Structure formats: structure tokens, C-alpha cells
Amino acid sequence: MDGISRLSGGSPGATNERFSELAEELARLKLDVIVSINTQTSLAVRNATRTTPIVIVRVSDPVRTGLVGQLCPSGREHHRREQLLRRVERQAAGTD
Questions:
Q1: Residues 71-93, mean pLDDT to the nearest whole number
Q2: How far apart are CA 33 and CA 24, in angstroms?
Q3: CA–CA distance from 92 to each of 45, 78, 80, 82 (Å)?
Q4: Alpha helix (H) residue ranges in the chain
Q5: How far is CA 45 from CA 3, 13, 14, 82, in A?
Q6: Rounded to an integer, what distance in angstroms lies between the CA atom of residue 23 and that of residue 36?
Q7: Which helix (H) or strand (E) holds 57?
Q8: Helix, strand, coil percentages in the chain from 3-state DSSP, rounded to 5
Q9: What would the pLDDT profile of 26-67 be if each residue is shown by its tens digit?
Q10: How many CA atoms lie within 13 A of 6 on its CB side?
Q11: How confident is the model at residue 1 (pLDDT cuts 50, 70, 90)?
Q12: Closest Cα partner for 51 from 72, 76, 35, 31?
């Protein structure tokens, strides 16, 4: 890891404008990933970049706040779950 930058909702004088400025600065760095801890900073980072992956932590309702469209497994995970379910069903029926 080359470096860590931190945006904190508990910083004295923290404002949405300041978070936006700092998030834009992070976006310009072309980081591999940004980890954001709380709704306020997560929204600022999401608005600053649509290409850098964002890991959000301690956000109570990411769907309602617009951070994510929905909470569901990825297509790949869903496919694996379906395969496992079919295998269990075949085993239960004695056909596997």
C-alpha cells in the first residue's frame, strides 16, 4: 500500500463541502479502492468518482441514501447458490 488518506466525520469543522473537496482529491489519485466510514463521507466519495471501487462501512441504509441501488448478491454468487441448491435437491431425490 503506497499511502492512506483519511476523511473523518468526526473532524473539527467537517462540512459537506470539505468532504467533497477531499473526496475529489482522492478520486484524482486514481486509487485502487477507497474505504469510506459513514454515510456523509461515502456520499461525498460516490459523487467524486464512478470508476474507483468504494467499500462503505457503518452506513445504516445504503439503499435509502442512494449509495447502492439494491442489496442483492452479484449474478455470479446467485448462480453458484442456484447450482448448490440444484445439487442438494438432486442428492435429496437420490439422483446425484
A1: 73
A2: 14
A3: 48, 21, 18, 15
A4: 16-28, 39-48, 75-93
A5: 17, 18, 15, 34
A6: 10
A7: strand 54-57
A8: 45, 10, 50
A9: 999 988 888 888 898 899 999 999 999 888 888 888 889 988
A10: 4
A11: very low
A12: 31
> Amino acid letter at 53?
P
- Cell 440444484 locates to 86
Assigned C-alpha cell, 12: 473539527
Q: Which three cell numbers stand for residue 40?
A: 456523509
Task: Return the number of other C-beta atoms located less than 10 Å from residue 9's C-beta.
Answer: 14
Helix, strand, or coil (residue 94): coil
